[in-house]
Amino acid sequence: MKNSLSTALTELAEDVQPVDLHDRVLATSRRLRARRAVAGSLAVVALAAGATYGAVRALPSERALPPAEPVVTIPGTVYFASSELPAYTVYRLAPGGELEEFAKFPSGALGETVALSPDGHRAAWVTVDGAVMVGRTDGSEATKVGTQELQSDCGRPSWSPDGGRVAFVSGGWEDSALMVADADGSPVAEVDQTGGCFPVWSPDGRRLAYVQFPNGSLNSQLLTVQADGTARRVVPVQLRDPAYVRYPVSISNDGAKVVAAVGEPDGCNCPEGITLSFADRLIDGLSGEVSQLTCENALLTPDGGLLLRVAAGDAYTLELRSPDGALLASWQEPKWPHETRLLRYVP
């Protein structure tokens, strides 16, 4: 029996082929990596399909957006505003992604004129009787820095990036002037004696963008000027009547880029005449060329990038994009109970 078993084992050993376990492990590892690569590629395609609706709409000369690794929160602090009566409410999105009600302004402030300081501790606004005020966000410790008779959001004040100065409109429709005052109310300097509406500061605090409405018409002019009143320039915006620039939203340090709200015909064949819809557009500060943005609101960032507020049904997504258009970060907004707009972004 033992001799038979020994003989059988010897014959079996001669038939067995040697196996290189090292080669098998490597082959298996390569197959797994290949499967993961395919799965990863499909995931990237799915993400790209969902993200492209927030990109700047392609112009004839525009190149494809570079790939990026976006994060799910926006760095810095984002402020939103809702002008739902009886109070003007400011919301804050903190760097950690938490959204909170930040401040409420009573009906004594014209809601659309409220401007928040960069540190979020103070605000500037226009009262219903035309006083331009600077105070804390709860309305206390308010100081009057000027007066106006516009009774319109045209006179909306604007804070310098360092929080030390406020630009505002003084006077009435016929004799308004663009002014700059220290945040404590003095001194007050005249920047443009020919008037202006909706002033906004560049991130470095050296330049302002604003609009004028000559003779009260909608044929507005978009202008830029140094904060000391020099280098005043009219931007030759390329729009066809009846489209017009309603107000600037933000301006780059060099004035080469301006985001502005533009009114354009909405295609309605209405019995009362042409109606306009408004959307933020990117304007070349030198040539005046207007580029469309596939978003509700937009703000220029200090480095020349864009913070876009993209509509998706009845919800919004914030997208932070680099100067070359790469998606850096995104955040899904909640469903707001009232209409809101981007108020300020502090990186």
UniProtKB/TrEMBL annotation:
This is Lipoprotein LpqB beta-propeller domain-containing protein. The chain crosses the membrane at residues 37-56. The keyword Transmembrane helix applies. PANTHER family: PROTEIN TOLB, PROTEIN TOLB HOMOLOG. The keyword Transport does not apply. Gene3D superfamilies: TolB, C-terminal domain (2.120.10.30). Belongs to the TolB family. Keywords: Membrane, Transmembrane, Transmembrane helix. It comes from the Bacteria.
